[in-house]
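Data card: per-record layout.
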Amino acid sequence: MKKTIKLLFASALVFAATIAQAQTADDIINKYFEATGGAAKWAEVKSVKMIAKGKQGGMEFPITSLQKAPNLMKQTINFQGKDITITAFDGKEMWKTSFMTMKAEKGEAEDSENAAKSLDFPDPFLDYKAKGYSVALEGEEKVEGTDCYKVKLTKKPIKVDGKEEEDFSYYFFDKENGVIIMNRSVGKKGQMKDVAVETLMSDYQEVNGLFFPFTVSQKINGQVAFTMAMEKLEMNVAIDNKEFAFPID
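The structure for this 249-residue chain is written out next.
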């Protein structure tokens, strides 16, 4: 009898382990889309306008973020009464406002080329296979005390100083409710080369049937460097492509 009980217990352990292993990256991604409104509804999003308050280095400032399919984006802050474009992409070129001259300046050709490959709207996991991306479940990890699945997303290779490099980052999905609560990546060039960057997302709220994180914070090498609290979010609003274009004096 004891032997039978031991065998049954061992079988139960094997069965439990098999069930655990059956969880796949696609299962986790599907749960994420179900939890945030559904993949079909995400596919209907053509533009997003966000108004938020940012905090960095003891300063607080308004932020306006514009995104439009397929890959147009622009982030602007208002500092001391002046609108400053932190980063923008018009579909071909990256550009920003120089803090030295307070004039618009274009980014490096390599950065623009990489942006054209890697900017995702409205979500990097939406139709990821059609984009040529791959995903892999790489175990579990706690994030701020929350049990998460760790999924590696690998996009198309990018160029860094003229050489192709793998472009990947890690996403952490809350095991309980399925939403993404952190993204982890490593800087590729310049002052951020090899620097660990973690973007934490929380306070998910519903907007027109989809759930977005209304609080975002960024850690650099483990230290909080920036936080953002969403005040207003609008979807499928009319945004002229001129908003993203490099300004001509």
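Known properties of this structure: The longest helix spans residues 2-22. The CA atoms of residues 181 and 201 lie 5 Å apart.

See the next section for split statistics.
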